[in-house]
Amino acid sequence: MKKPRYRRIQEVLARRQPDLTILAEDVYKPHNLSAMLRSCDAIGIGVVHAVDPTGGVPTFNETSAGAHKWVELRLHQDVIEAQLSLRGEGMQILAAHFSERSIDYRDVDYTRPTAVLLGNEKKGVSQQGEARADEHVLIPMLGMAESLNVSVATAVILFEAQRQRRAAGLYDAPRLSAQEMNDQAFRWLYPREAWLLENRGEPFPQLNEDGTYT
Questions:
Q1: Which of 69-78, 92-101, 111-120, 139-148 is the least confident region?
Q2: Of residues 96, 173, 174, 110, the one with CA closest to residue 141
Q3: What distance in Å separates the CA atoms of residue 54 and residue 123, rounded to the nearest whole number?
Q4: Distance between CA atoms of 16 and 112, rounded to whole angstroms?
Q5: Cβ–Cβ under 8 Å, residues 28 and 118
């Protein structure tokens, strides 16, 4: 049973986009954060960033369908620190925010290293967050509702990013190194062993073609 699972994991990791992510700012409703993680996994995002005022994140909701097992969630103390960290990785930061300088979310180049900042359900993106974003993007609304649910907005924007990246061939070859793919596959196949090795500061073994190791 290990070999088919390992093959599936390899296929997933071969499509991961290490230079595409979201930054969830104070998204405190569990079902929303869970749904956002599920969309990220579907798009090929392996690492998601989050800021929460309580110092943690909500309990995952069943709507994630286990997506949190496949997507790493990195926590930040505040939005400024998070944005500085993402800029350090060379990413443009797009705030999903309505303002005088907002542009249609489809008029952005998502083939560039990109982080999409999304605010919480009540207040949206904070002033600190929107002030330091490279662009403000919006999803045109043609009905009476002024905005979409944050998890729905996340999916809409990310699938546009996927469309552009597919057209540019960014899913055609692995973006992760062979070592990164091996190590992530080991974490997913052998979580307990991976936890022990990481705590000891020891490297992961190289996986065989059938997903086993010696």
A1: 139-148
A2: 96
A3: 16
A4: 15
A5: no
